[in-house]
Design goal:
This protein is an alpha/beta fold. Helices cover about 45% and strands about 20% of the residues. The chain has 2 domains: about 200 residues, P-loop containing nucleotide triphosphate hydrolases (Rossmann fold, 3-Layer(aba) Sandwich); about 160 residues, 3-Layer(aba) Sandwich (Rossmann fold), CATH 3.40.50. A hairpin with a 2-residue loop joins strand 8 and strand 9. The C terminus is likely disordered.
Length: about 375
């Protein structure tokens, strides 16, 4: 059956193809058709009029669970879909971070007066505010389940979300039947898998290439020194990994705050050193950045002496977060790597950072896929 070519996600995808930012891929186009189906159903079921939006329960819309190997374009397609959905009542977040928030909400409720009631339902207490805010669409990147705490929680959590009219669109590296594989008491998790398959269309993305790895093949990802030549080298690398897209400002949501990102495009982010290391950011912020982007460029990394101790500590935490996740790094440095850390207070930690920076420019590191998220346990 011929596919419509003027639907929102398809139009955005074809625009990227026409600009040369991506290579057309039949499997990606099939996924685009499913995303446009979800978008159309969401738009058609949206209550119209003030009182309808206030009192009418939205019609449930069957979502999408898109799975495939790393680097096949799942995140890029999610970007296009989320941007195209004309609803304010939507949210996109990494699965690990979403569950982190759920656990934090449950813990806070249990400490409250209401939470001490033996009949209190902490899951209901977490879901209710989402529904009161009118959440219609929840987009979760990298859906995976390794921890028994999440495994036992997911059925109750998503049963209530789905019952409240929330549509789920998720990306994952595994099919639903492989979630929590070989996990403890897995038989108790199976009802969630069935619920997930009932409320989403499960679609594979068997794209032909690992596009993420192709971006960095044969590239020099570091430049040293200052001046226009170094900046030009970083500009060329940026355009290489974004497929020629110049990018636009973006944000990373972190614990209710919004971290400004000067440039984002095609799953990549570009910061100046001052944007991430001269601001009051911490480990959780850097982990969020590492989850949101598969590639990061940092411009103008200076030599860090005793006058930059705080910035040096943040830089160490940032590199740790990117390295642990397997994020690809491009950067310009004022001095060679072995001369970066000149502060006695951070000298020991900086040795590990320099070692990781050295590894992160290697072909072996650049060819590897993103590493799995940390164990999805409550914090």
């Amino acid at each position: 059956m011929p596919q419509a070519t003027n639907t929102p996600v398809r139009s955005a995808y074809d625009a990227l193809v026409s600009r040369g930012a991506i290579t057309p891929d039949a499997a990606q186009r099939d996924a685009v058709a499913e995303l446009d189906r979800v978008l159309a159903d969401l738009t058609a079921s949206r209550p119209s009029g003030f009182f309808a939006r206030l009192f009418d329960k939205p019609e449930p819309v069957r979502g999408l669970y898109l799975h495939g190997e790393v680097g096949r374009g799942k995140t890029m397609l999610m970007d296009l879909f989320f941007a195209a959905v004309p609803l304010a009542e939507k949210r996109r977040v990494h699965f690990h971070e979403f569950m982190d928030e759920v656990h934090a909400g449950i813990a806070a409720f249990r400490k409250s007066a209401k939470g001490r009631d033996h009949d209190a339902d902490p899951v209901e207490a977490v879901v209710r505010p989402m529904l009161k805010r009118g959440l219609r669409l929840l987009c979760l990147d990298e859906f995976h389940v390794h921890d028994i705490t999440n495994a036992m929680l997911l059925y109750r959590l998503f049963y209530k979300l789905f019952a409240g009219g929330v549509t789920l669109v998720a990306t994952s590296n595994v099919v639903p039947d492989e979630l929590y594989k070989d996990g403890l008491n897995r038989q108790l998790f199976l009802p969630f898998i069935e619920l997930l398959k009932q409320r989403t269309v499960v679609a594979a993305l068997p794209a032909a290439q690992d596009y993420r790895r192709l971006k960095f093949a044969g590239q020099h990802v570091y430049a040293f020194g200052t001046g226009p030549d170094v900046r030009a080298a970083m500009d060329r690398l940026w355009l290489r990994i974004t497929g020629g897209e110049p990018g636009e400002p973006g944000t990373v949501e972190s614990i209710g705050r919004h971290i400004h990102v000067p440039l984002t495009a095609m799953g990549a982010a570009r910061f100046g050193f001052a944007d991430v290391c001269d601001k009051p950011l911490g480990t959780r912020d850097f982990v969020r950045i590492a989850h949101q982007f598969d590639s990061v460029i940092i411009d103008d990394v200076p030599q860090m002496d005793h006058t930059r101790s705080d910035a040096a500590k943040r830089f160490i935490l940032l590199i740790d977060s990117l390295y642990d996740r397997g994020v690809k790094l491009g950067a310009s440095f004022a001095v060679p790597l072995d001369q970066l850390g000149k502060d006695d207070r951070t000298a020991f930690e900086f040795q590990r950072t320099v070692s990781r920076l050295t590894e992160m420019q290697s072909e072996e590191y650049l060819e590897k896929a993103l590493r799995d998220s940390p164990a999805d346990t409550p914090t």
